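Forwarding the complex inputs:
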Amino acid sequence: MTTITNSKEEALIIREQDVVPLRNRVKEYGVKIGMSILNQTKLITATSELVRNLLKYGGGGKVIIESVSNGRDNGVRVTFIDNGPGIADITLAMKDGYSTGKSLGLGLPGTKRLVNEFDIKTELGNGTTVTITKWKNG
Amino acid sequence: MQNNFLSGLKEHENSLLTIWSQLLIESGSDDGAVEEEESKEFASLFLSALASLNGKFQDSPEFEKVEDLIVGISSSRGKRGFSPRENAQYLTTFKQASSQILSKLIKDSEELYQANLQLNEILDNMTIMTFEAYMRGREDVISRQVDEISEISTPVITVWDGIVALPIIGTLDSSRTQIVMENLLQQIVDTGSSIAILDISGVPAVDSLVAQHLIKTVSATRLMGAECIISGIRPEIAQTVVHLGIDLTGIITKATLASALKTAFDMLQLTVVKRKLV
Amino acid sequence: MERIPILKMGDFLLVTIQVDLYDQLAENLESDLINTISKHSSKGVLIDISAVSIIDSFMGRILGNIAVMSKIMDAQTVVVGMQPAVAITLVELGLSLNGVISALNVERGMDLLRSKMHTSDNEEQDYDDDNE
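Prediction (whole assembly, three chains):
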């Protein structure tokens, strides 16, 4: 089904101080379409995980927040774009318990469980783009 | 002018209606009185729109009204339980009836061909719209039922001061688990209960996925600072759990709701005593 | 730099987190809290997170760290007031905060801390009894 973007904005994330305002913006997008508290919480938690990766491994980058609709449901889509080193083995990175950093290593697979759609594109040396979508009733 | 071919139909509205309702009855997709009113209104509006048509039908405000009407009819037919075939026949029989009238009205075969072509285009477009409306009508029914089911299927009961119970009836899938968790945890907060009993007597089977959902619910309850007891473990459930190698040892499980309640009393340091008759 | 206040109440420390956490703030809280436990030889720590609307893996890890670190320093940590949505999200994320003890609200948390101290006193008593 085709997805339509109703409104969108971009944010530059370069420091840790940018994280809280970004989380709040994403939350506002969720509130605007009447998303439940639980789904809002899952969405901003997923955002928090991914923006940490963006800062830690990607050296900062760009985040796009969109209010989307597919005809049956409304949702919020967040895209994280960095120009970092990329991920060498994406299959491995999506496995529970894997991490190159000092976190608990449930970043990517855990984050995937919190949202309805999860898409990751990465190329060694050319950065990583992660797109997540949370539907209002999803 | 193309539309001249079709504008003549308006004068034969009554005979068209007769043929149409006959065709509808023959096809078995007519349900009587309500239909007739609806059909009359539709035919009248449609033929008037045809008569006043000037240029493309897509741009005509009259046709917009007709389309709104047919969309309304289809969606209500969908909700009343008509089959997709019956829904489609509503307009295909109308097309047949119109063609029959047209063939009597127009003698020139080229003109008749052009008229039928235009009629086809307009009505086919509407048939597609009715299909979409019909589907939406059915989907509305489904989503309303889903809401109702999820609402009635997770009643949280306060069984004692500080103890809530939630009987689960039916299968536990991931979306249901979410609702169960949300309701249970919210109720724990609202009542300030420190023990929750999850009764699974009504769950037909526990496979590894269902067990995972149960474990998640228990973990979430503990994170909130309450304890969760699972009751209603039938012998066959105990067997499958062990055969599948599911580890439930971290969870307090009881065979019946009564024994779970007893455990809850123990945890709250409550005792139930029989009153002595003096 | 922004810091979360730590209140001393007798043998216990009380932390009420009123703002949404970010990594640096959480890390500061961890070190501040451990230092304060050591300074006052506190026996218990109560962390109220009822106003926190998001806990991700990093902040979850900090909470776990605090629990384990304080335990080594002979102080019991109780986390109170977690919101249902936060609890469900943590579980979905795959975090169960092992080692962290929770309570529904501040009152229950205090009761829990007191009873923990009580039982640990009793255990010592029992041990003495056994030796006799």
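Chain B touches chain C through 18 residues (CB under 8 Å).
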